[in-house]
């Protein structure tokens, strides 16, 4: 009986880097720790945005002076845009055999948008978050990658179609060939992605031949890495995307952009302006292109300047009304949507596993007893009686 404490102390002394790393990961996955980290992150964001407080104050004043009916219509349009974006995910992933609820897709879309719009370089964080969650839903890495490529191509093609139409109706002095070329490339990318999903055996055969040729050039075994692509065809073969469903995904991607443009148009009407619709469309697309290089949270500054300038130059609005319309639009599409997204993230991805009765205490996790309970140290189970946290902490 006297040897048990000594063996326990000896096992603690032998804790290696891998065990310490598991202990750290387990500590960070604890829902209470994640909740505190998220709240701290929000406080940091509020502190970092202190230089833009005048913008928020001006935006609130602009909203109070604007037409409430148009404000409501703009909010509904932005809501419909997010619903359409989530529905694209539902259509494409269900066609690949992934079971997901619409409520889950909408929650992920709002939370990912909050991460995307809050941080410089946020779209990369958002894409990684979406990819990880899709893997949790049962999608394979190949299917998740297929979704990313196809949804991006459909979204870009929808924007190109709207931009092409706006330039046509405005008779803008812009050479249309560059936009037409972009549209053709995006359509070809969408078609190629769908073709790959319909012919997975040809894709795998082509990958094997390419690898064999490369291995011969490198004087390596010809079948090197062939096992890495062995399941490629099997994963892609799960995709069933018939033309009607593909057309529905295209329509949803286009409606996503139309709803966002309607949000901007209603914001413009809310301040009493009545510009040509084509001018508003072109201003919106220009601002979106500027926002691709997101060097500030949500493109705050560059996007607002570009949108204001385009509303004045193309939509023939006065500078004061254009600025007021931009502030109203950004308060809805950036500030309001980010707040909603963060609330959804806290409720869906942090709160859902806050069952402290079955979770180990923070002290247990920090000292490693929780890790030993789950088998980090073989044969040394703790007698504290606390079980491991629920599986939902892997969000």
Structure description:
- It is a single chain.
- By secondary structure, the protein is an all-alpha fold.
- The chain has a domain at 59-198 and 238-342.
- The chain contains 17 helices and no strands.
- The protein is globular and about 70 Å long.
- Residues 10-14 and 360-395 have low confidence and may be disordered.
| Number of discrete helical segments | 17
Euclidean distance between termini CA atoms: 42 Å
Q: Would you tell me the structural class of the helices and strands?
A: mainly alpha
Q: What share of the residues lie within helices?
A: over 70%
Assembly status: single chain
User: What is the overall silhouette?
Assistant: globular
The major pleated sheet works out as: none
Number of strands: 0
Detail the poorly predicted runs: 10-14, 360-395
Radius of gyration equals 26 Å
Mean pLDDT: 74
N-to-C SSE string, H for helix and E for strand: HHHHHHHHHHHHHHHHH
- Percentage of residues in DSSP E strands: under 5%
Membrane topology: Multi-pass membrane protein
Region (Disordered): 373-395
Keywords: Cell membrane, Membrane, Transmembrane, Transmembrane helix
InterPro entries: L-PG_synthase/AglD
What are the defining features of this structure?
17 helices; 395 residues; mainly alpha; globular
